[in-house]
Amino acid sequence: MKDFSAAGEMPDMNMLARQIKAWGQELGFQGVAISDTELGEAEARLLDWLGKGYHGDMDFMARHASLRARPAELHPGTLRIISVRMNYRPPQARDSWAVLDEPETAHIARYALGRDYHKVLRKRLQQLANRIQIAVGPFSYRAFTDSAPVMEVELAQKAGLGWRGKHTLLLNRESGSWFFLGELFTDLPLPIDPPGGSYCGSCQRCIDICPTQAIVAPYELDARRCISYLTIEHKGSIPEALRPLIGNRIYGCDDCQLVCPWNKFAQDSAEMDFAVRHGLDKASLRELFLWTEEEFHQKLAGSAIHRIGHERWLRNLAIGLGNAPSSPLIIEALQARAEHPSPLVREHVAWALSRHLG
């Protein structure tokens, strides 16, 4: 592309937008689209959701509510948002349904089986910004990927990358929902893309399959019941009534995606960073529960899982072991942690042992 900065000319924004999309594809994004910053209706829905307390103890959701719906306040000068998506389903990962059918095996959400996606997407977004800067000269921008108060799904939907499914995730007709989202906020007055349609129709398989019935209505999620929230974001004790429903899901939950008809079109990721590490797609609950804290840090450094820390890792695994069929080896593993220094771990281990020993 012509170097407008060197020529001292105003770039052709239509041509630049086409180039940005081509560069994005070269950098490994399967979708690139552009929107403006208007999120008034989304802000009203967010405030209603917060008012119902569905955010649980994610106080940051309420603390930065206005910034989420006002991109130009989050990054002053923002005129356009370049939204991107990148497939993450790891190739050759063990079938999720098979893992869920084995109560002694740990099920981990597919997105977390490889390296931390934040670093991968941020790096590619920075590379995209670098290419734009070479073409047009210095411009204002900021890259995000699930790392700041950004309404990613709303922005991606607005740009036409897909539509919000009844499970609240973004769906795409060609790729289902197994992808990450990222954004590049910019002051460039690029042409915007039109939003697409919504294609869930009367289907509500995601609502029906949810183990804890966290999808309380179409497009409305009560995070306080969501297994992903409980095993990742929630820092305290998991409500006892929900523990048996968690089964062997120790980090996140994919059920609503697994059952979605649109995911028959989903494609595996070509990114080696998202490939399965340390056999996490087939590891037993007992094996992971017996990892020392040092092993946890060593093996999960660079993984999204590492963020929850060893204490919550053990909490989640104790629930999985409490739901597993009783065996001497499982009871022995739980008893080995019965006097753990953490009250949180001790509580969940005691609950699990009570399930096996009465």
From TrEMBL:
Binding site for cob(II)alamin: R68, D146, L170, L181, S228, C253, D254
Keywords, ordered alphabetically: 4Fe-4S, Cobalamin, Cobalt, Cytoplasm, Iron, Iron-sulfur, Metal-binding, Oxidoreductase, Queuosine biosynthesis, tRNA processing
Catalytic activity: epoxyqueuosine(34) in tRNA + AH2 = queuosine(34) in tRNA + A + H2O
Pfam families the UniProt entry points to: Fer4_16, QueG_DUF1730
Pathway(s): tRNA modification; tRNA-queuosine biosynthesis
Residues reported in the UniProt entry to bind tRNA: K235
EC number: 1.17.99.6
Annotated ranges, domain 4Fe-4S ferredoxin-type: 188-220
Subunit structure comment from the entry: Monomer.
PANTHER family named among the record's database cross-references: EPOXYQUEUOSINE REDUCTASE
Protein name: Epoxyqueuosine reductase
